[in-house]
TrEMBL record:
GO terms for biological process: bacterial-type flagellum-dependent cell motility; chemotaxis. This is Flagellar motor switch protein FliG. The gene is fliG. It comes from Spongiibacter pelagi. Transmembrane segments: none annotated. It is a peripheral membrane protein. It comes from the Bacteria. One of its GO terms (cellular component) is bacterial-type flagellum basal body.
């Protein structure tokens, strides 16, 4: 079965160098690397395979299914390139609707530690707004470089955001201009604070997850519960459709599963084992029995790795993710 990155690679090869480069401007470095590797491994493309990929792309575009390659941004770029900046933008707005506020693209290519150093002397609210504009995975990596008490403060501020006022956006513009020579125009925007906070916390280690949720709970129990509901945790794997679970298992290293399942509840264990062949299931159960007791930190680390793989597959539209688990590890 052809993977999402392979489909993207085939489509980009068919688009040609100029259009492909415009598409890749709208995705993260990690995705660029993954698609680039897939492109490098393409030796030939038969007509039937190419037609299937194009047909699926067209169908997904009509349904507005996330493809992980910035479809609307790409279409907008085509309009402005063909018709000129102003006329193309007007046409894109009519066809696609008004352009949504995107993450600050220039920050995607910077090391998390560098971004943290740039922001360390800024007000926590400015830091929170910046992270809220970034991709969740990168925002989590940046957050890790701040002291614990600052991390808690930042996440709490993000979780409480509903609207980012124009005045705050202007402050962020000034910070970017002074410290990174980035000139950008940011508009007032609405934000689902709890969802943004949950997505960022998903990228942290278990100890940080627990600490931050406990801190939020001391201030606002309902908000903490809401964030928890929105987080994708290991117990959510039990709600994956069988096809999604089978695809996930193909991507997970055989060394991870026996460790991760040591700390899994019965529903998750049953879901995983039920989607394996009889032979694979027997080998996994035997491996788990022979390993004996394991450190909790090792179990949590293995579960985190599997969750990271599941989230990436979900974001690329390759699997359907369950949400809203009641327990976190």
């Amino acid at each position: 079965m052809i993977s999402g990155s392979e489909k993207a690679a085939l489509l980009l090869l068919m688009l040609g160098e100029d259009h492909a480069s415009n598409v890749l401007k709208h995705v993260s470095p990690a995705v660029v690397e993954k698609i680039g590797l897939a492109m490098a491994n393409v030796n030939r493309v038969d007509k039937a395979r190419a037609a299937n990929v194009v047909a699926e792309f067209n169908s997904a575009l009509q349904a507005e299914t996330p493809l992980g390659i910035g479809v609307q941004g790409y279409v907008r770029k085509l309009f402005t390139t063909t018709l000129g900046e102003q006329q193309g933008a007007n046409m894109a707005d009519r066809v696609l609707g008004e352009e949504e506020i995107r993450e600050i693209d220039s920050l995607r290519w910077l090391e998390p530690e560098m971004i943290a150093r740039m922001l360390e002397d800024e007000h926590p609210q400015i830091i929170a707004i910046t992270l809220a504009h970034m991709e969740n995975e990168q925002a989590a990596q940046v957050l890790k470089h701040f002291p614990v008490e600052v991390q808690d403060n930042i996440v709490l501020r993000i979780a409480n955001m509903k609207t980012i006022p124009q005045s705050a956006m202007k402050q962020l513009e000034e910070v970017l201009r002074k410290k990174l020579s980035i000139t950008t125009s940011l508009k007032k925007r609405n934000l689902d604070g709890p969802q943004a906070a949950a997505s960022i916390i998903n990228g942290l280690d278990t100890a940080s997850e627990t600490r931050i949720l406990e801190t939020v709970a001391k201030i606002d129990t309902a908000l903490s519960d809401r964030i928890h509901e929105l987080m994708f945790v290991f117990s959510n794997l039990s709600s994956l459709p069988d096809k999604s679970m089978q695809m996930l298992l193909r991507e997970v290293s055989s060394d991870l599963l026996p460790v991760a399942l040591k700390g899994a509840d019965g529903a998750v264990r049953e879901k995983i084992l039920g989607n394996m062949s009889k032979r694979a299931r027997e080998m996994l159960e035997e491996d788990m029995d022979t390993r004996g007791p394991m450190k909790l930190s090792d179990v949590e680390s293995a579960q985190k790795e599997i969750l990271a793989i599941a989230r990436k597959l979900g974001e690329s539209g390759q699997i359907e993710l369950g949400r809203g688990g009641d327990d976190y590890i």
